[in-house]
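Researcher: Here's the sequence for the chain we discussed earlier.
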Amino acid sequence: MRIGVLTEGGYPYASSESRVWCDRLVRGLAQHEFDVYALSRSAGTRGGGGPFRQPANVRLVRTAPLWAPADDGRTYGRRDRRRFTTHLADLVTALSRTPQAAGGTGDDPLAARFASGLYGLADLARERGGLCAALRSESAARVLEAACRAPGAHRSVHPATVPDYLAFADRLERALRPLSLDWYDTADGLGSTDLCHAASSGAAALPGLVAKRFFGVPLLVTEYGVQLRAHYLTAAGTPDSPPLRTLLAAFQRRLTTEVYRQADALTPGNTHARRWQERCGADRARIRTVYPGVEAERFAAVGDRADEGGAGDGRTVVWVGRVEPAKDLVGLLHAFGEIRKQLPHTRLRIIAAPVRDREAGGYLAHCRGLAAQLFPDEAAGAHAVGDNPVSFEEIGGPEAPDLADAYAAGSVSVLSSVVEGFPVGLIEAMLCGRATVSTDVGAVVEVIGGTGLVVPPRNPRALADACLALLRDPERRQRLGAAARARALELFTVEQNLAAFRALYLELLALAPVRRETESPYGWPVPFAHPAEAHVAGRWTAAPRPAPAWAATVAEGVHV
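Model: Thanks. This is the structure I predict for it:
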């Protein structure tokens, strides 16, 4: 089977959670061939200019930048300009008007109009090109102005000005740039793949929509973080004007809804993402929750020791993760102050991934200063060197050379976040057989499933009480740690993730209509002209493969 993997801003260039997951998928399903189509959001995405080293079953990697100018130099004649204006008007009308003003029946009368405009522009781009210049033209600005000032338009877009129209046209051109790419040829492009697998919704899934619309290629969309929610959170802190924010949010919502509507299968990574998909109109029958996998073998040694009773230092609390304000290390330090009042010999080890950006470095410096203020260095005697009960360490350092060593450093693992998606670090602690205390954010409760303690976020006192309960009860720590490890091994391993996608690939291909027919000399389709066993993964499979001789013989025998 040949799979087209669609990514945005991650695999195979940038180091991210998405890159790790895609790399494991491609390497774990070595029996399939993969074509990677990557959208690059910025010049830095390319990670030094080239992709990470790919396995042998990756046939090709094609990249399209969304940050650089992309004008093919083509312009439209009168007839094509009329087509462009009609399709753009359909699309922006669906963005600017409210469903109540649109009238009609059904759940969302504007969804069909948005789809008509989107696929009309895609068809025009495939036939004529020139979409970039057209979207930046005066005609596009006039269409936007007419839509925003038409009766029934949302009241927040009425105050839009010419700069707003030009800014939105620029953003829209970048968002729709995948429509103009040369990725869709039926010889060796997305049009000839057996399945498109998008690593997220939004722009990454847009090429999959085109391949499904014009070539009938099945579309699978995986979301471990909800792109629409991420856009809402990011847009709140931008200097964009209210009309521009409204139009951009409406476009992202409409595009996401269309992706969910057209996808043959959706695989959210947790129940939180699944609820977002259902609220955006996704069919429940096509949703399959597939948890992201973690390499259990990496933590096997620490987990085995925990099962035998070696669950780390009973007086040490460990926090492991990336340093950022959302992790609420400040709240954790205040909670540890309450712990030290009742258990004076307790230690807190904060073991973080290497800090690479300025904001994280500033937050880490603030936390170090707060720890020095809350917990002055303590010395056993007048001539001894003081020691702080809170230590800040780095993964890869002498005390924690490996990630598993970080979790092995203590008996209680803490997650203190105020915002969290899917808590991979929590699963790693569970695989190490550690008792956990977590805040109730994201998919934490779904992951824990009763094998750890969960407290409200931004509540240092509740966090301290939960940690004290475990530090004072070694038997409970052992019991919860063993249950947590058993749950993680059952649900959250790489093997479980790969098995789910392996079965889903076969199911989608079995349900997809046959798109390549071979006719016999008598005009009848040849049965088994493309049998599954005739396709063997490998580089040489890109060459034309004639139908097996026995298939033609069988066909002639049937139709003579």
